[in-house]
TrEMBL record:
Protein name per the record: Class I SAM-dependent methyltransferase
GO BP field: methylation
EC number, as in UniProt: 2.1.1.-
Class of this enzyme: transferase
Organism phylogeny: Bacteria, Bacillati, Actinomycetota, Actinomycetes, Kitasatosporales
Keywords of this entry: Methyltransferase, Transferase
Superkingdom of origin: Bacteria
Pfam families documented for this protein: Ubie_methyltran
Leader sequence segment: none
InterPro entries according to UniProt: SAM-dependent_MTases_sf (IPR029063)
An example molecular function term from Gene Ontology annotations: methyltransferase activity
ATP-binding among keywords: no
Source organism of this protein record: Streptomyces ochraceiscleroticus
Transferase is among the record's keywords: yes
Amino acid sequence: MPLLRDDALSAAFDHAAATYDRLTAANPGYHAHLRRSARRLGLPAAGRRLRLLDLGCGTGASTAALLAAAPHAEIVAVDASAGMLDRARAKAWPHNVSFVHAPAERLEEAGVTGPFDAVFAAYLVRNVADPDALLTAVRGLLVPGGRIAVHEYALGGRAVDRAVWTAVCRGVVLPAGRLAGDGELYRHLWRSVVEFDTAPDFGRRMARAGFDRVRILPLPGWQTGITHTVVATAPGTREAAA
């Protein structure tokens, strides 16, 4: 089975939206790790006078993490799945958070334009057809010296990392997905990780896309060696405004 892409992937997420929060809540550390990755952006002054992009926001878990790290920032949250966005919008949000339905590759068509002081992208990059084009476009949305944090399933490169991920998927993720009626999506989840970059390879991909100061940071728990935060900055001397 080929990996799901574009409209097929959005449709799969639409179908899974009703049970998605329940399944992710059963993943130990899921929300805490998102908050940790958002904090790794190092945004000053609780986000005052900053404009942030949450790219691939899903049902809003990454948005909530970004809001916790920068409660005073303007946050624009974007996702290609209408079903996931409906779930996100139904939650309580302050006035500085807005949601936009758009594929990450076609933001301008939906009226989402830069500049942004920082971008947070959780569980997104491995799911797009052309990660290099996406990263280059995102770099262009950032102010000079603007920050990006990519929170992603990117295996550490050891055989044990791949083995743990596959064991968790076969023992927990795939059965849960089938039970929820979304087996195709969760098979995609498993395969999209094992067929994507290792964390070191993804760091090199970020550098090739023109980002500076690329750092690969691990996360604790069973996700060690499986999930990483990759942080970097856009070229230029200006940091996110204080």
